[in-house]
Amino acid sequence: MSFFRLYARAFALLSRARGAAVALALANVLVAAAQFAEPVLLGRIVDKLTAAQAAARAPQWREVAPPLAAWVAFGLFTIIASVIVALNADRLAHRRRLAVMAAYFEHALHLPLSFHVRAQSGRLLKVMIEGADGLFTLWLSFFREHCAGVTALFVLLPLTLFINWRLGALLVALVLAFGLTMNFVLRRTERRQSEVGRYSSDLAERVSDALGNVPVIQSFARVEEETRAVRGLINELLAAQLPVLSWWAAAAIATRACATLTLFGIFIVGIWLNIQRLATIGEIIAFMNLATMLITRLEQIVGLINYMFLQAPRLAQFFDVLDTVSTVADRPGALEVGRLKGAVTFENVSYSYDGVRDALSDLSFHVAPGRTVALVGATGSGKSTTVSLLHRVFDPTKGRVLIDGGDIRDMTLLSLRRNIGVVFQEPLLFARSIEDNLRVGKPEATDDEIALALERAQAADFVARLPQGLSTPISERGRTLSGGERQRLAIARALLKDPPILILDEATSALDAKTERQFQAALKAATAGRTTFVIAHRLATIRDADEILVFDQGRIVERGDFDALVAAGGLFASLARAQFIESEVGEAAR
Ligand SMILES: Nc1ncnc2c1ncn2[C@@H]1O[C@H](COP(=O)(O)OP(=O)(O)O)[C@@H](O)[C@H]1O
Ligand SMILES: [Mg+2]
User: Fold this and answer.
1) Which end of the chain is more exposed for a tag (fewer CB within 10 A), N or C?
2) Alpha-carbon distance 274 to 375, whole Å?
3) Which CATH class is domain 421-498?
4) Helix and strand tally (H, E) in the chain?
């Protein structure tokens, strides 16, 4: 995204506060005009004094009083207006910063799981904070300084030509020199700076990845290697950043030199013009002051361009996330469905992650409401992908998924997902209390309902044993609990939601064989009266499923109930035989 496009987008985000922004901009123009008046008035006063001196008489108060009074008035106005502008600019920038963060957060939560699988949560957080901070600084400095600066440049600078065009031309030359220098430096450093942006993203990703895997790093004694890798990235980043900084330092020196030369030039040319009777002493003084003021403004603008330039990659990343459109957004006119019965039909469904290889090909099956279907097959055979299509993590590449006879793409996402409970293989828990985690399933649940859900998920005992019971806080991602405990809480949460369709994607994998056996009864109670999809590796778990779909490389190769499939002697039968032998050996060893 080009520099100016970024700038325009940053200001487009203020559109919600358009009134305040326009008022602030106008106030800035007034302040700039008032500031411009001060040196001009100073020049006038000096001219009155020198005129009296030339006439060898004492100056009169009544000659200088009007411009003096005007000067004081402009000065007071500038001070008061600046304070009001600064205060309101602050408020506006703070408000919009938080509003933009909230919008980003909401947008990110709406993005499909397929996006979040690729994007690291650490990176998303970094992009949010850096982007919002960058926008904040940009808005604030614009309304506090740069808006007035730009006004001074484009409106007031030409006006100086009317006061004394020769001296005015010198100021115009100064501004041109500034502009050319900036343009040159921007061109020289743009490519390098985007490299810097890339390196700093890599660095943040690497650090957040390592911090998320501390147990692995420590147990594999990788602390030194990881630190070295991060240092390496830092060195690369510095190697790219330092030349950019040198160019900007050179630019600062060049602009400073321009400024000093201009002041010098105005003085010398002014004296020469005065000798030629083409400029008064008051005009020389007024222009010296105007030039000083303009230089301050120009330096502020250079500062802004420099800042924007360094921020550009971060803002670009921020806008990239905001621009990501959800592939599974609601269709126009999507229906708000109530509680569904849970008849699920897959009609010739194919899905491909990469558009090259099909993860699922031509899948068709029907599940009557309340029945339990088990999905069995080797890892990577497409089981998770199949159930993901049901709660619209993504939509089929070909074919349709129907619930109660209606295409799920014609239902609103929210109402569809209210009807589906999912227990994932990795039980994702919030760093909140156990009760808060359960209530995610049903915020208005009564204590009895919570107790019942825990009971059914076989979690009541261990929760009761915790010192604070239901109020026990869980650490980030539930690391203070064992895998089995986490999983039982995740199941209780889904049961509390009481959806007509339940998906258990290897939900019991973290449970040991004994716990899982105890779990059978609970599972049976949990699945009663709802359409259930169970993915499990231990075939004992799915012994009672109404139908078993056997997957191989994205296709259903066998289907039927347990006994029929074993009798058929196909892929499933060989899986069952292998597990039977395994468990025999396991029992014997015990
Ligand atoms: N997010 C993803 N991006 C690309 N390919 C994926 C993704 N998730 C799964 N796959 C691929 O799709 C195929 C089916 O995966 P999956 O449905 O997870 O299998 P299962 O759940 O049966 O182990 C596998 O080849 C897997 O590598
Ligand atoms: Mg899977």
Assistant:
1) C
2) 96
3) alpha beta
4) 20, 10
**pLDDT tens per residue, range 426-470:** 778 888 899 999 998 888 999 999 999 898 888 888 899 988 888
pLDDT of residue 46: 93
- What does the block give as tokens for 519? 């779990």
Segment holding 557, helix H or strand E: strand 555-560
| 113 CA distance to ligand 1 middle (Å) | 13
d(CA 134, CA 9): 13
Cα(532)–Cα(545) distance, integer angstroms: 9
Q: Which pLDDT belongs to residue 582?
A: 64
Q: Which residues pair with 550 in a beta bridge?
A: 376, 558
Does the pTM of the predicted model rise above 0.85?
no
Q: Which atom of ligand 1 is nearest to the CA of 506?
A: 21
| Cα–Cα distance for residue pair 385/362, rounded to 1 Å | 13
> In this structure, what DSSP letter does residue 511 have?
S
Q: What mean pLDDT is predicted for residues 226-240?
A: 93
Atom of ligand 1 nearest to the CA of 117: 1
- The type of residue at 524 is K
Evaluate: CB of 486 within 6 angstroms of ligand 1: no
Which backbone phi and psi does 10 adopt, to 5 degrees?
-60, -40
Strands 398-403 and 406-407: antiparallel
Binding site membership of 97 for ligand 1 (Cβ less than 6 Å): no
Strand partners, 403: 344, 406
pLDDT, average across residues 298-305 = 82
Q: Is 558's pLDDT higher than 60?
A: yes
Query: CA geometry: angle at 441 spanning 437 and 445, to 5°?
Result: 95
Tell me the pLDDT tens digit for each residue of 97-115.
999 999 999 999 888 887 8
**All structural domains of the chain with their residue ranges:** 3-323, 421-498
Q: CA 31 to CA 286: how far, in whole Å?
A: 18
* Rounded distance from Cα 572 to ligand 1 centre (Å): 21
pLDDT at 160: 83
Percent of the chain with pLDDT strictly greater than 90: 39
**Distance from the alpha carbon of residue 360 to the mean position of ligand 1, in angstroms:** 9
Encode pLDDT of 108-154 as tens digits: 988 888 788 777 777 888 899 999 999 999 999 888 888 888 888 87
Q: Quick one: pLDDT at residue 95?
A: 94
pLDDT beyond 60 at 555:
yes
What is the third-level CATH fold of 3-323?
A: ABC transporter transmembrane region fold (1.20.1560)
| 3-state secondary structure labels for all residues of 269-304 | HHHHHHHCCCCCHHHHHHHHHHHHHHHHHHHHHHHH
Tokens for 9? Answer: 């987008």
